[in-house]
Amino acid sequence: MPEGKSNRTRVIAAFVAVYLCWGSTYTAIRVAGEHLPPPVVSATRSILTTLLIVAISLGLRKSLRVPKGEGPKLALIGLLFMSGNNMLLTWGETMVPSGFASLIVSTLPIMVALMEWVLPGGEPLNKRGWAGTLLGTVGIAVLVWPSLHGHPPAPGARVGLGVVICLLAALCFAVGSVLSRRFHFKADTFVATGWQIGIAGMFNATFALVTGGFRRAVWTVHGMESIVWLSVMGSLVGLVAFTYLLQNVAVTKVATYAFVNPMIAVLLGVLVLGERLAPTELAGMAVIVCSVAMVVLSRVGGTKSTAALDREVLAVSGDAVE
What we know:
- By secondary structure, this protein is an all-alpha fold.
- It has 14 helices and no strands.
- Helix 2 packs across helix 3, helix 4 (98-105) runs antiparallel to helix 12 and helix 12 packs antiparallel against helix 13 (279-300).
């Protein structure tokens, strides 16, 4: 196969992997959360992913050491990503449909943009960014309004609490993203990810033990399949594909995952889980996706260097963790 055609094939495959692997995590989280307590889901997927990363790193003869002083920072980011974000998202998806949760969490780039605007040395929002932020707020209101006024998306769903929990999950990841950018890690990205997930996995396992999660766990085939999918396809394959795209494709194209993945999650929720969104909720989905696109593209445009743009997109990459 000619080199140019081969490269295009790899790029297309990487985009498909990012869209499907990361878009499907919401469905897998929902299934896993139906069979196992959220702390158990977060603990087992984190530990399995860490073992895979360690095995691959050793196979590639990568050093597992990290520069002096980066350990505590990696631990903090890992706890925000894989404990705060992941555990809260898994809990939230026990109360609202997976597609619904994905749309709530998709506001993550807006949160990051607002934090960067407020913090010293951060990037100010331009007009398109502010328009996207305001539009996203309207989209959230349109999305949740029918569910909070007599039309719950699922029988017995605690929609209000589920929305708050999903927003807190997104906030944890947003805080971790902003801190990660400011820490300027020098460690190998793959190894650093392993440390982050591994530390969070130990915390999650301890939390699950203390709260009796392992004692209450019912290890079903579907539950274990979902955890394996989250660990292998969501955290590992998705991350590798995303990193490859950052190295080979314009960052504005890579950033499309931020508004494509929620649509994939909603579609899979309908096809696999039989979820349904009311017409007004579909309208809210369209508004949110447009708002996220506006914010993301407003932050990757302009005169930044390629390296700066890569860091910008990495800062709002959600799914090594979701």
